[in-house]
Amino acid sequence: MIDLATRPLVLDGGLGTLLEARGNDVSSALWSARVLRDDPDEVRSAHAEFAAAGADVLITASYQVGFGGEIPDAEVDTLLRRSVSLARDAGEGLVAASVGPIGALRADGSEYTGAYGLDLAQLRAGHRRRLAVLAEAGADLLAVETIPSALEVEALALELADLGVPAFVSLSADSAGYARPGALAATLRTAASIPGVIAVGVNCCAPTSVGPALAQAPAVPLVAYPNTGGRWDATNRTWSGGVGVLAEAAPAWVAAGARLVGGCCRSTPADIAAIAAAVR
């Protein structure tokens, strides 16, 4: 049972960047999926670091795993299921199966723009098979995350409605896809209306973007897990720029209605421990 009423639940942090800090090569287009495929024990160990730091929810290494991407389709089903079992083995808390945007499969930075050139039917088809596998893989809920456009949320809404499994939907708040005034607020409302969605919010944005985004959200349980600031260079596959202290802002996110709080890229187990201390 997923209880968001008793207290805020702490999400984990940046799994891919923790794997990199542990000495793994995540420089290819596969990112953390390369480690999931080639060294699953490393993924389990990284999850365990976040669990030990106080994370209530571990998000799987399936963000960049999907049919029609860099990984041959014949391997995708196995890797999706493996991602759930590794997170389950690593801790006592909840497991959220990561469903990244179509842009994550392209590894070209389009998860921050939504500029795929795909229509609604193509987006639905791109997500359908992966959603079905993850819905059956034994996770407690789906983490539909870093979604960069209203059109992709609409596609996911139609697919999730048929699954009937718990999920949260988190938008890439700084995406160019939400540049039009009111677009982010409208998309958060759409996400909140999906059957089975227990929370909506934002992730992988600047920490300073979280408060204004949550202020536009409907009166439902919210999600907040930004990166630590800076900019992602999709060509060189590196982060640059400042590193914020997430725990300082986390109590304000909880006051604004966030019930799932954590960190995204470059947030460490130490950051998650500090967030846990700040919000409990």
Tell me the layout of helices and strands.
Blueprint: E1 9-10, H1 15-21, H2 32-38, H3 40-53, E2 57-59, H4 73-90, E3 94-99, H5 102-106, H6 120-136, E4 141-147, H7 150-163, E5 167-172, H8 183-192, E6 197-203, H9 207-215, E7 222-225, E8 231-233, E9 238-240, H10 250-255, E10 258-261, H11 269-279
Parallel strand pairs: 1-10, 2-3, 3-4, 4-5, 5-6, 6-7, 7-10
Antiparallel strand pairs: 8-9
Kindly describe this structure:
The protein has 280 residues and is α/β, with parallel strands linked by helices. It has a single domain, classed as Homocysteine-binding-like domain (TIM Barrel), CATH 3.20.20. It has eleven helices and ten strands. The protein has helices at 15-21, 32-38, 40-53, 73-90, 102-106, 120-136, 150-163, 183-192, 207-215, 250-255, 269-279; strands at residues 9-10, 57-59, 94-99, 141-147, 167-172, 197-203, 222-225, 231-233, 238-240, 258-261. Strands 1-10-7-6-5-4-3-2 form an eight-stranded parallel sheet. Helix 6 (120-136) crosses helix 7 (150-163) and helix 7 (150-163) runs parallel beside helix 8 (183-192).
Offer a few descriptive terms.
alpha/beta; TIM Barrel; 8-stranded parallel sheet; 11 helices
The residue ranges in which pLDDT falls below 50 over 5 or more consecutive positions are none
Strand order of the largest sheet: 1-10-7-6-5-4-3-2
Structural class: alpha/beta
Topology pattern, helix = H, strand = E: EHHHEHEHHEHEHEHEEEHEH
How large, in whole angstroms, is the Cα Rg?
Answer: 17 Å
- CATH topology label: TIM Barrel
- At the first level of CATH, the class is Alpha Beta
Give the CATH superfamily.
Homocysteine-binding-like domain
- What is the molecular shape? globular
Major beta-sheet overview: 8 strands, parallel
Can you count the beta strands? 10
